[in-house]
Amino acid sequence: MEILIAVTREGDNLEMKKLPFTFGLVLLLSLLLSGLASAHVTVQPKETTQGSYEKFTVRVPSEKNEPTVKVEVKFPLDAVTVSRFEPKPGWKYELTKEGDKISGVIWTATGEGLGPTEFGEFYMQGKVADTATAITWKAYQTYKDGSVVEWVGAEGSDKPASVTKVNAKPAGAAADSHGHTAAPSAGDSPAAASTDGASNTPLYLSIAAVVLSAASLLVSLVRKK
């Protein structure tokens, strides 16, 4: 992208034109990139441990001008067993099953749902399988106009499914009274660092845009002298 929109030569001096337009364009680009970086339905944490009990957070942002009124998440039964769900005001939930196992959950708004500038978090608890290497969460986001966004694609696709990496049990790991491996604390785990880094991406992009715009303004003022 060219920062200089138009230049005129007066002797040896160069004068930038339409600097306000450039400034606005850069800020708009940063906002668009920030939206793309955070618009996906994701499940946290990004890493966990085989055999551990974990609290999972389904993070749902609305990315259309219509409210989000339903969210469905399917569980890979060979990788995780989800058994508990935290009630959320303004939403009800129902479970889907395969035999006697819970294979998914559907949250449905009882009010207006999630507006265009809002996001919501839904909490559930479960046990990671002892042999799991990854948990792929397929999610389906329904808007008030009836449109459905399927977050089921591969990593790098337009609509990727969220994936939780599962680390092997550490040697000599402590077990609880049921013989299950305890999950690492959120503050010490690589997942915490990964989550923090992902959540800060929009901030970094915005800062970079402001710095770039300030640099353009400074160059303009120097060349006018």
Key features of this structure:
4-stranded antiparallel sheet, 225 residues, 7-stranded mixed sheet, alpha+beta, Immunoglobulin-like
Summarize the structure.
It is built from 2 helices and 13 strands. The chain has 225 residues and is of the alpha+beta class.
Could you characterize what this model shows?
This protein is an alpha+beta fold and 225 residues long. It has a domain of 133 residues: Uncharacterised protein YcnI-like PF07987, DUF1775 (Immunoglobulin-like). The protein contains two helices and 13 strands; from the N terminus they run ββαβββββββββββα. Strands 4, 6, 8, 9, 11, 12 and 13 form a seven-stranded mixed sheet that branches. It has a four-stranded antiparallel sheet with strand order 3-5-10-7, with no helix packed on it. β8 and β9 form a beta hairpin.
CATH fold field value of the domain at 38-170: Immunoglobulin-like
Count the E strands.
Answer: 13
Shape field: globular
Uncertain parts: 1-38, 183-199
By CATH, the superfamily of the domain at 38-170 comes out as Uncharacterised protein YcnI-like PF07987, DUF1775
So, CATH architecture of the domain at 38-170? Sandwich
Nearest-integer average pLDDT? 77
Distance between the termini: 26 Å
* Class inferred from helices and paired strands: alpha+beta
Strand content: 35-45%
CATH class of the domain at 38-170: Mainly Beta
Q: Could you state the oligomeric state of the chains shown?
A: single chain
What is the H-and-E element order?
EEHEEEEEEEEEEEH
Total helix count? 2
Helix content: 10-25%
